[in-house]
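Journal club side-thread
Mid-discussion, someone asked how the predicted structure for our own chain would compare to the paper's figures. Pasting it here so we can look after the session.
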Amino acid sequence: MYHAAAVLYPQAMATSVSLPMEILHAASQTASVAHRGRAQVEFKLLGPDRRMLRLASGIALKPDLELAKAPPLDLLVLPAIWRNPLPAVAANRGIFPLLRDYAASGTRICSVGTGSFLLAEAGLLDGKPATTHWNYLNAFRARYPGVELKSRHLITQADNIYCVGSVNSIADLMVHIIEEWFGSRIARAVENQFSPEIRRRFSAAAYQNEADSSHHDELVAEAQQWLQNHLAGPGSLAALAARLGVSQRTLGRRFQRATGMSAQAYLQSLRMASARDLLRHSNLSVGEIAWQLGIADVSYFSQLFRQQAGMSPLKYRQAVRGKLFSPGAPA
């Protein structure tokens, strides 16, 4: 079981707590099917004490645990701060030692919007990339000149420290974490449940301080980049092995050891991610999309897409476009 929590403070925005909580709850329920119905994610609310806490919006939440009794965690969420973040920073200095302890232990810490001010004030972003809510970019840059502010990215990652620029972006990050915890099938099922038309792949939205922080095999990292740039290339894996000066068998063995999947499976996951983007943003037919991605057999392409997305390409296109506003549509 994975353990996640969010820190509550009066200035927190409730949606930046409830959205990741509900997404992880959906993942837990979906993953529990393979574990005799046992929950796979536990999400707790942490507060200064156990008393009901009324947020600036008027919503009242009751912490499950006191901060002083916070358990080991796999994920800690710092909610977005309503309006000017500096009063909240001054009022919550007491949590800085806890944040440093969690960061040192390897817990993933994720700030939402101006929650990144808390990470920066605690010294956890010094020399690292970060982002924040667009309205406070200049204030953040002036107050924390030692932080590498990435104003054009909605998500940043520096080892186990993540920042997202908005409440919407926390959904992208949660889907990414779910995929790492439970695999692509469950991640896609949860993604489709939570408005697939607004989701972006983590790799497209995020700035990472390493090309791939999950392994340290430089040859495999180079292979991953090459595959990203040659999705439609014929004989991609054979050409890749030759380019890297290793046999295809050696490449496959190292790829499996570094990433937990075969090079072919990784290539197909990249192709399906691009297919989702093309279905969402282009009018190309399913056959044309398959051809652009180097898959000649449309039936095979549809089968691959269904395995990863949980629905056919046409149903996916209908799902992601069906909710878009059309000003000319009749009431």
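Post-session note: The chain has two domains: 2-208, 218-322.
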